[in-house]
Amino acid sequence: MASKSRRRSRRHSPLTTAALVLAVCAHGALASSPLVDFDRMGKVGIAGAFAGLDVVSNNNSVTFDPSTASLLARSSDGSLSKVASTDAGGSILAGCAIGDAFYVAGNFSSVGGTSASNVASYSTSSGSFSALGSNGPNGVVHALYCDSSRKQVWAGGQFSSPGASVAVWDIASSSWSAAPFGGLTGAAAEVLSITTNSSQSSLFFSGSFIASFGNGSIPLNSTNNPNVPFSSGATPFSSSLVPVPLGNASVTAGPASSDGQFNNVQNILCPAGPDGPGNTWLAADGNKAVITVRKFAFLTARGIRIGNTFLNGRGTTGFSIATIPDNAVQQLTYFDPTDNQNKTCTDSCPLLTDSSVPYQDFLFDSDKDITGFQLTLSEWQGAGPGLHLLQLLSSGAFASAVDSQNGQSCFAPGPSTTERNGQWTEKDADTSIAGTIQAVLVSRVDVGTPAAQAPSFTWMPYVSASGQYDINLLVPGCTNFQDCALRTSVKVTVFPGGGQQPWVTTVLQTNTEDNVTLIYRGPVVPTSPTFQTTITMTLADDPVGNGQDGQFEIVADRVQLVLTSPNVTSSANTSSTGTSSGTGKDGFGFLEWPLGATSTSSASNGLQTSAITPLDSVGFDFLTALGGAASVMSTAFAPAISAVAHHPSGAVFLGGDFSLSSGDASGASNIVMFKNGALSALPNGGLNGAVTSLVVDGDTVFVGGSFSDTAKASNSAMKGIAAYSVSQNAWSALEGGVDGAVNSLDTSGSQVLVAGNFSKILTSSGSTESQNAAGFAAWDTSSNAWVNNGGFIIGSMTFVGNGTSSTPQFVAGSVSTSVRFGATGFVMLQNGPNGQPQVTPLGVQFDSPVVSANASTTAKARRSHHRRAGAGWIPSFNVLNVFKRQTPSTTTNNLAPLPSPAPAPAPAVLAGAFWTNSTSLKELVIIGGNFSYAAGGVQAQNVAVYDDSSKTITPLRGNQPNGTVRSLLVKGDTLYVGGQFTVAGIEGSGFAVYDLANQRWSTAGLPPLQAASGDSVTVRSITASPANGDDVIVAGSFAQAGSTACRAICSLDTTKSQWSALGNGIQGDVAAVVYAGSNELVAAGSIALADNTNANVASYSFSNSTWSAVGNGGDLPGPVTAAEVNDGNMNSVFAAGRSSDGSSPFLYFWDGQSWQSVGQGLEGSTDVAQLVMVPLQNTHGGNDIIESDRVLMVSGSISDSSFGNASSVLFDGQNFLPYIVSTSESGSPGTVAALFHSIANFSFTQRHFLATGVVILISIAIAAGIVFLLALIEILWTLFARRDDKVNNYDAVDMDADDDSTHRPSSLLEHINAATRSTILGSSPFGPNAEKEAGLAAAAGAGAVAATASHDDPFSGPDASNYLRAETPSDALGGGLGPEEQSRPAYARYSFDGHGEGELALKAGQELEILDDRDDAWWYARDVRSGHEGVVPASYVY
User: Fold this and answer.
1) Residue 582 has pLDDT above 50, yes or no
2) pLDDT digits over 682-697, tens only?
3) What is the DSSP string of 1104-1150?
4) What is the rounded CA–CA span in Å between residue 488 and residue 538?
5) pLDDT, mean over the chain
6) What pLDDT was estimated at residue 437?
7) Are strands 1129-1138 and 1120-1126 parallel, antiparallel or unpaired?
């Protein structure tokens, strides 16, 4: 009887780690994402503690499940983006591209939500996946090769259909076919690599197989079982499958013919004679018929064999088959002898009516575990349907422990048999299928019984044909049989025949559910009168478990032989019933096939000797060096050639898992070279572990795999990856290699891309220093160093390869976390296509800093641009203390300590500034933080000068800061450095000055900052004073500067190197300093004024040197960690921090009157490091908090109930929108510390440029306007000539009631009317103010009248929203107030949004200065705090 099986696969086991989801979605309240205008800020940098970063697009969601295989696209800048994932347990092992289509292969049943079996195509233009037909490879695919010129995709792996281990997809015909040479069998029957020779004229196939060359005319075994008649409707594979005996099955058929000679369906299960009475079943005339077969026990089937009837012109022409118990109509694959093509069908399937084809074999797409099937005969010719033969084909061969289930197969000389030693009894269990039972034999044995004395059981399956088989032992689960405590382990020995050595396997029988265990893989000799394959089971030599009541139980169920390839070579086929070529040659693991070549060979024939190429000697020599075919066949794990590379010199490199024992390369392990017609060992005998991948780059061959040194130990730094120089015949290491296996290599420009199952890059042999690189890394061949690969990923990667023109590479594997850009703590941002942000990662890699009290660039030289693992925390102190106060005792006021920010594991960049080199005039970036690096052969740390154009880094000369840098300021060629550090040779700590022009530290004349007793200095902010260009404001945690008492904030006169306090000073600690115009400084932190007034946000006036609290200090919940003033407006201030008890974060807004909370939704884990107002390219709906042309960027570690976690979010006054997400090297969320930019004072005003066509139309309109103006001047001149008469006769009383001269002009025509009225009447067009002007004129006399008339030009009025906006207050006054008028103070009665051009926004209670009040409706005013000017509604002011 057939055995129950499960499809065996090589899928990678799912990671036990739960799927990590990195998902951030845009807030639904916003119609579109704000587009930050980075270009308006100049150059922009983002600094923080992260290893990878991405900018969130609207409704963006990225999910990774490590139990699946994910495919990622790698762009030209190295950034990674997810494409799709497979089904759970799937794997992606290969890929190649033709045009815009990328083909992926591996072991999966779906990818990207598309059902596809092991191979699929991905369109990079449409972003969609497609399955490749329905009859593709039925097993795992390890290799793909895309032949662009012929539009074909070659697939290699371990499968039997549509060809043995090799299949070809033709794009034009959208069909699969076997390779022209049929296929590759023998050994493990597995192709692991398909590549080309150096001229791309031939394909190299490598793996574990036997390539046999003969005359190609004599098949090894044409009919397999001589009792089975030959049919061209069967294939060598299908005819090798032993039919399942159906004699004891329940078989029903109907409606049947009324003729008793043709209505017994049992007659066709194994007909005793030719088509005719007693050997044929006919359905009732003119009726569709159904045949149902039930075994009531699970069996494994591979397909069905159907023989048609040809009596009296009758016959079946169409049918379908549904399996039981799933009742699924199956897709079938068959060989059509009419055109020699493999085809598929479902419902209905065609059955030939050609009497020369006695039967056809129809195979399922894979082995099916079933209890029966239902055959529907739906189409016929003649009077009705009928059949002469019906058989169910097994997966190969089988044997059951229960003799009653070992019926004799049709045409077989005998059934499968068993032998047993000891006492065995039958044991039954119900299954999940009603009426279906599971029967096994069990034997009890006392615990402690030697294996030689224990019961044994032997299966002797009937095998009809030689071939490559997988033999499985089926072990029923102990749960159903309720004997788990009795179960133990057994020893299974397989004798496959043909002089091969037995395989011995120890199998656990303690499984709770049914299990299938592979106990042999290789060639099997068919059953004959002199030989039968045997599988013997007995107690293991060292059985597991304790047994129950002093006994173990051994369980015998079934063995299953799964045919993977028919007809092995003659060397292993001594008992075959067929014959073989006597003039053949065999090669192992390598075959060269010229592209475009054709052949009539098939999997059942040897390749023609005329097909041998000179390089096929590689396979011939390899088989000899391995000890011959008998040696290859007898090993439990067949050797394999996993990768081949053809060097331009002609040398062929072969890597894999092998050890050669004879020939010129005897003793070579895992890699050899074929050159000058012979195999040759590489230095030191090759490598001490398996090789999986090879790539050639010029003179160098890069090798990846699972090794740690050469075979004869010589270089322990060659871990996982190594380089071999062809010209020098020498090995070299890539620094210290990697800490795991490398699965795939590829080249991209000057980089070698490395994918595998590793987590770190090792710096040198035996070194404890390393860097995180979980699964993917890049080696730069020009600098001979590991470099930033562009993206960030954590996973176990299985594939990297070149892609399409739009997507240069693809990477695949089991991914836990990935973001688009990889960078250690720093990226640059600018406006990209469609206004989206364009990210440029740091081009080098930082490491954790070196602990040294005297760190200097004279330290030991190390490689440039190398990358190391983040070591965790700052070595000399706790990195969490970014904002921590010194101690409460250092203040006279009981202030709450500053909160600690989010963790920032090293390497981290915490500050940055831009510097224009006065010599080269190149703008460079200076960054500081907690990191180290090597550049120019020297070691440096914590401060670096980065050239973003060349992606190179330069250290500061001299001693290096030992600690953490938190703040940087550049003035001219002077760099001011603040933080928690010391520099050898510089007095004090926390603050230092560096001369960039002369490249040295300034060591003389500057008194150091000093902390209170027992504390250390921390400088968090260094800013340039807007009030005095020579002053620098330094703030943080300290008590004094030299002898100057200036707690927490001091002013440094850079020309005199003198410190001075700001006014009466403050108490506490300062976290941030911002400015409101040129006269006011805002400090935030945990602060009290000199009089002990709590003021966590305090302002300092440079003009009167006084401090004042911004609002009521008690209104803020706790200390402030970040603050921002909106465009210098003191009536728009933001402050963020944590409550005094540290339990919750806050974000507050000061509107000039009171503090109000705007941080609703921020969760308790939020830590805000920076607030900065950024301009927009587009707009959002403005509100009373933030104008429409800007947003507040909130950075740090942000958690919100609406979107989850982010490192930076945008706040528009109402909603938080996630903007930047980042991750640390461990995969946990990262943090953003600061955004900094090169333009100190930029405008938020948006510039909109019109299209060319619109500009042309406007130009035409202007020209027409000029003509109109000339005509108007002529009219005005005429009116002016008659003005005297009009003025003498004018009476103000006669003014029309509806005259609009007292109202604000609102259109061009009204301006013209106003001008005309002024000319004719000689009065102001602006209503009541004319009376004031008339009074002034009467007092001043006639001269004043003339002056007044001249002054009342209607186009010089103050209404800047209708005219050209005044550039300065003096411009506005020149057009409005006369020399005798003065400005006056006023206050805003109501708030006014001021969105119109030239309008000034108001807040209720805001202090103003009225510059011009001559218009009834609109006055020209100035904001006394910010200095902004514009028109305001007169009724809104008092």
Assistant:
1) no
2) 999 999 999 999 999 9
3) TTEEEESS-GGGSSS-EEEEEEETTEEEEEEEEEE-TTSS-EEEEEE
4) 11
5) 82
6) 72
7) antiparallel
In the numeric block, which tokens belong to residue 1165?
Answer: 């884990």
The residue ranking higher by pLDDT, 770 or 186, is 186
Quick check: bond before 833 cis, omega within 30? no
Burial class (CB in 10 A: 0-12, 13-18, 19+), 18: exposed
Phi, psi (deg, nearest 5) at residue 747: -115, 145
Among positive and negative, which fits the CA dihedral 693, 696, 697, 700?
positive
Alpha carbons 48 and 1167: distance in angstroms, whole number: 13
Largest Cα–Cα distance of the chain, in whole Å?
143
* Token pair belonging to 106: 């591996």
Six token digits for residue 994: 């560096």
Q: CA-to-CA distance for 163 and 614, rounded, in angstroms?
A: 25
Six-digit token string for 832: 């990209």
Start-to-end CA distance of the chain, whole Å, equals 103
Is the pLDDT confidence value at 559 over 70? yes
Q: What's the pLDDT at 1292?
A: 39
Q: Closest Cα partner for 21 from 65, 60, 51? A: 65
> Does the structure show a pLDDT above 70 at 863?
no
At residue 135, the 3 state secondary structure works out as coil
β-sheet bridge partners, residue 106: 92
Residue 552: which H helix or E strand, with range? strand 551-556
What is the pLDDT, as a whole number, of residue 436?
64
d(CA 917, CA 926) in angstroms, rounded, equals 11
Look up residue 712 and give its two tokens: 């004869």
- The residue assigned the tokens 């071999």 is 724
Lowest average pLDDT, out of 516-525, 1114-1123, 1296-1305, 1408-1417, goes to: 1296-1305
- Residues 1090-1140: tens digit of each pLDDT: 999 999 999 999 999 999 999 988 899 999 999 999 999 999 999 999 999
User: What are residue 417's DSSP bridge partners?
Assistant: 460
Confidence of residue 873 (pLDDT cuts 50, 70, 90): very low
Greater confidence (886 vs 460) lies with 460
Distance separating alpha carbons of residues 1229 and 820, to the nearest angstrom: 14
Amino acid of residue 1031? D
- 704 DSSP β-pair partners: 693, 721
List beta partners, residue 442.
425, 555
pLDDT at site 1255: 77
pLDDT in tens, 1329-1338: 433 333 333 3
- Beta strand 202-214 pairing with 607-608: parallel
Contact of 995 with 986, CB cutoff 8 Å:
no
Nearest in space to 198 (alpha carbons), one of 546, 646, 713, 658: 646
DSSP state of 610: G
Region of 1384 please: left (phi>0), alpha (psi -120 to 50) or beta.
beta
Distance CA 447, CA 325 (A): 41
Burial profile 187-217: b = 16 or more Cβ within 10 angstroms, e = fewer: bbbbbbbbbbbeeeebbbbbbbbbbbbbebe
Tokens of 1063: 């006014």
What are the tokens at 1179?
């707009």
Q: Using 50, 70 and 90 to split pLDDT, how confident is the model at 180?
A: confident
pLDDT digits (tens, 9 = 90+) for 1359-1397: 433 333 333 333 434 444 444 456 889 999 888 888 888
Helix/strand/coil for 1273? helix
CA 565-571-577 angle, 5° bins: 70
Residue 872 DSSP class: B
Please list the residues that pair with 757 across neighbouring strands: 741
Q: Are 1076 and 1101 in contact (CB under 8 A)?
A: no
Distances (CA, A) of 1011 to 855, 990, 1036, 1067: 23, 10, 10, 13
What sign for the dihedral angle of Cα 364, 366, 367, 368?
Answer: negative
CA distance 1272 to 11: 87
